[in-house]
Design goal:
By secondary structure, this protein is of the alpha/beta class. It is about 50% helix and about 15% strand. The chain contains 9 helices and 9 strands. The chain is globular and about 55 Å long.
Length: about 260
């Protein structure tokens, strides 16, 4: 279906930018991210006559930025919320800066929860009044299904996102808002570079455009989408093996991969 107005977090690059490009020109766009210049360029490129495309620069790790986005989205009357913004840092919890560890939780968990709970009542009200459907996409990850040593906090936050999306979807059963947990694996974006992951752990699996298109196509048809056959196999193994054993196996692999980068 075509949505009237969408909020996309983390829209300055990667999957967020791909969502902005994938949505049809009939959908107005409210884009948000930390970097103003990429947002400006994207808005200029996607603006069309009669289409609202705007942006709000905000750091979702702080209350001020989060409140600014909520206010802008309420005024924009969105009917599609794409919780895409995410932070990840590779390394040991005992070594990583505590601020970086906390920021992962603030952006991946707190911001997703705050945006969803704040904007959902208005989305429900407008959808019921207009006789249409609204949607929420929460970008989780293939690592939502298992522990990931050396990206421990990141994997844990994405597990929260997956469970949050599933619970929310059940709460909204019979209501005019669809919910999707989108679980990509390795994706061609700047995430691995920013996370500081060793290149051998950042093999490219899908493009950002493929992930965004798959997510939009799945919204309203299912509650969870793991992108790619290989990723689906990995998640099935993660469900079968005991978490402690899976963590041990993944830990052996990541420990070996990280040695040249220590």
């Amino acid at each position: 279906m075509t949505y009237r107005a969408a909020l996309i977090t983390g829209a300055s690059s990667g999957i967020g930018e791909a969502f902005a490009r994938a949505l049809p020109s009939e959908t107005d766009l409210l884009l948000t991210g930390r970097q103003e210049l990429p947002l400006e360029k994207l808005v200029a490129e996607l603006s069309r006559a009669g289409r609202r495309v705007t942006y709000t620069v905000a750091d979702l790790a702080c209350h001020e930025g989060l409140n600014r986005v909520i206010t802008a989205a309420e005024e924009f009357d969105i009917d599609l919320l794409i919780n895409n913004a995410g932070l990840g840092y590779f390394g040991e919890i005992a070594v990583n800066p505590s601020k970086a560890e906390a920021e992962m939780v603030l952006v991946n968990v707190v911001a997703t929860t705050a945006l969803s709970s704040a904007l959902l009542p208005g989305m429900l009200r407008r959808a019921e009044m207009l006789g249409q459907r609204a949607g929420i996409i929460i970008v989780a990850s293939v690592v939502s299904f298992f522990p990931l040593p050396w990206m421990t906090t990141y994997a844990a936050t994405k597990a929260f996102d997956l469970m949050y999306a599933l619970g929310l979807a059940e709460e909204l059963r019979g209501r005019p808002v669809d919910v999707l947990a989108l679980c990509p694996g390795s994706t061609a974006s700047r995430f691995a570079e920013r996370a500081g992951s060793p290149t051998r752990l950042a093999l490219l699996g899908h493009t950002s455009a493929q992930v965004a298109s798959a997510g939009l196509a799945a919204l309203g048809r299912r509650h969870v989408l793991v992108v790619g056959l290989g990723n689906r196999v990995i998640t099935m193994i993660g469900r079968v093996l005991p978490p402690t054993l899976f963590a041990r196996i993944v830990g052996l692999f990541t420990r070996r991969a990280r040695r040249p980068y220590s």
